[in-house]
Design brief:
By secondary structure, this protein is an alpha/beta fold. It has helices at residues 59-73, 90-105, 111-130, 233-239, 242-249, 254-262, 272-280, 296-313, and strands at residues 21-22, 28-29, 49-53, 137-138, 165-167, 173-176, 179-181, 187-190, 369-371. The protein has one domain: di-copper center containing domain from catechol oxidase (Orthogonal Bundle), CATH 1.10.1280.10. Residues 1-30 and 32-36 have low confidence and may be disordered. Keywords: Metal-binding, Oxidoreductase, Signal.
Length: 376
């Protein structure tokens, strides 16, 4: 059973464009070949891609998506196996990179834009490495809040993102002195659906590590750990309901948006983002290692949809940042992030530096995508 998070993050959280030129490992890189910083062709009605809710996809389309993920899991890692033993395949390379960057892309001003590009890199990899041609899905966790089990994404069928973990009642989860959530309906290994019996080899890293600014010495060791989940309707009903998402899509400013997504350290409530993580449980309860679970990607695509909806609802605020620095808990101390600040990198998936401003719009910079609807 994975341990619970400490109070240091109990309420925070797990917190027109282009065709791009060639990069290593089959990637199209974001920059034009002349190094000018341009991004090639403009995003048009003919080239824009539309992201959709996983639960709205036809069964065959859902399976095509999970088949592409399994294809990525079947490709060799591009990381140094001596330095990163847990990088057992190309899919887990993303999880390792996410662990390595956690201190710099959570609970800070990079959170939304860094993850936006990380998702795009992953989507592009599914397309270019595994031939995926379908829509990149999000998980509308407000729509499933009443009972996540009752929807295709978690029904455990061949057309799902796998189901709950085996039942293992370890009691309530204490997230801090003033925040306890009840146990969910799982807690053990995931044994159904496309990712049944998946090994998630990066061991649980407690969120208390954020206060140190470092990772455990064995953070990237290989561990024979199964993918675990503990679906929790209490958490989803309380923290990821439609009212919460609508409020975020109408936040007064970027600081208010960040608060609604990630909460405040030491408070007695989870934000939307951390609420979504804890509604899944297992590895998803760790801010560091959660990207091992394939549902991490539809979850974060939904967070990007909330961000995109806020930008669409208030175009004059679309480029606002929340005024925070570039490290979690400002540890180690770092400068306030501006639109001109260079983003933390994305490991071997990225070639040249990228400024925050280049990742603000979903139809500019490297991006050319939209969502099937806006949270209004």
């Amino acid at each position: 059973m994975l341990p619970s998070l400490l109070s240091v993050v109990a309420a925070t959280a797990l917190v027109s464009s282009s065709v791009v030129s060639a990069a290593p490992q089959g990637f199209r890189h974001a920059r034009s070949a002349d190094g000018s910083g341009g991004y090639g062709q403009a995003c048009t009605l003919e080239t824009i891609k539309t992201r959709v809710d996983f639960n709205s996809m036809a069964p065959a389309d859902r399976k095509a998506y999970t088949d592409a993920i399994k294809c990525l899991m079947g490709k060799p890692s591009q990381l140094d196996s001596t330095q990163y033993p847990a990088a057992i395949n190309r899919y887990m390379d993303y999880a390792v990179i996410h662990v390595n960057r956690t201190q710099y892309v959570h609970l800070d001003a990079f959170f939304l834009t860094w993850h936006r590009y990380f998702l795009w890199l992953y989507e592009t990899d599914l397309q270019q490495s595994c031939g995926y041609t379908g829509a990149f899905p999000y998980w509308d966790f407000a729509a499933t809040a009443a009972d996540p089990h009752a929807f295709p994404i978690f029904d455990g069928s061949d057309y799902s993102m796998s189901g709950d973990g085996l039942y293992n009642n370890s009691g309530p989860i204490q997230l801090g002195a003033s925040l306890t959530i009840p146990h969910g309906t799982g807690g053990g290994c995931v044994t159904t659906g496309p990712f049944a019996n998946l090994i998630a080899p990066i061991k649980f890293i407690d969120a208390a590590q954020l206060a140190t600014g470092t990772l455990p010495a064995d953070a990237f060791a290989y561990n024979e750990i199964c993918l675990q989940r503990d679906l929790n309707a209490y958490v989803s009903q309380t923290y990821t309901n439609q009212a919460q998402l609508t409020a975020a899509a109408h936040a007064d400013n970027a600081t208010h948006l960040e608060f609604l997504l990630n909460g405040v350290i030491g408070s007695s409530s989870l934000g939307i983002h951390s609420g979504a993580h804890f509604s899944v449980g297992g590895q998803m309860n760790s801010i560091h290692v959660s990207a091992q679970d394939p549902v991490w990607y539809p979850l974060h695509t939904m967070i990007d949809k909330v961000y995109t909806s806020w930008q669409a609802n208030y175009p004059e605020r679309a480029s606002q940042l929340d005024g925070s620095t570039g490290t979690a808990l400002n540890t180690p101390p770092s400068d306030v992030v501006t639109l001109d600040t260079i983003e933390p990198d994305w490991g071997y998936f990225q070639l040249s530096p990228i400024q925050v401003r280049e990742l603000i719009s979903t139809t500019a910079g490297p991006f050319c995508y939209q969502y099937d609807n806006v949270i209004s």
